[in-house]
Amino acid sequence: MVWQNARKNAFFRGVPYIWCSNNLQTSFAIQCYWYRQLTGDNTYQELEEATFDFLLGCNPWGTSMIVGYPLEADFPDDPHSSLNVLHGFQTLGGIVDGPVYGSIYKQQRGVSVVRGDEYAEFQSDHVVYHDDYGDYVTNEPTMDGTASLIYLLGAKESSQR
User: Fold this and answer.
1) How many of the other CB atoms lie within 10 Å of CB of 46?
2) Distances in whole angstroms, Cα of residue 92 to Cα of each of 27, 70, 145, 151
3) What are the C-alpha distances in Å from 95 to residues 20, 110, 160?
4) Most buried residue, 49, 80, 122, 149, by most Cβ within 10 Å?
5) What is the distance between the alpha carbons of residues 60 and 128, in angstroms, rounded to a whole number?
6) Is the pTM of this model over 0.90?
């Protein structure tokens, strides 16, 4: 089902844009990786790579979804984190919640874009993402998503050997 959805858009994005969509994106990349490793079947390898690439910036906003990574690219530098807002400390390596359907974003209370929307021209009624500390819906680093990301990055590294 994810593959059928992914074939309908330029970024091969097949998981839904619900809250913590990047957690789903990361976990789905792991599932594709496991499938390929366990079966030797490369049918979904392109989808696996596109899913991984989405997290690293091949997405409508052109930004990585990982705080501070990669250094030479655009990445979340204003995450919804008290460490960042109060003390200027970045949660480097943390994956943010990720894009959500516009309908989900509009229903939240207390969410706002405080420092301006650098991706305004790429927002739509369908899906939004903001790199702004006031947006706890799309730009909050998540521990569970980051744990999955660590596994995914380790798997990618070990498969290169």
Assistant:
1) 13
2) 20, 10, 13, 16
3) 10, 22, 23
4) 149
5) 10
6) yes
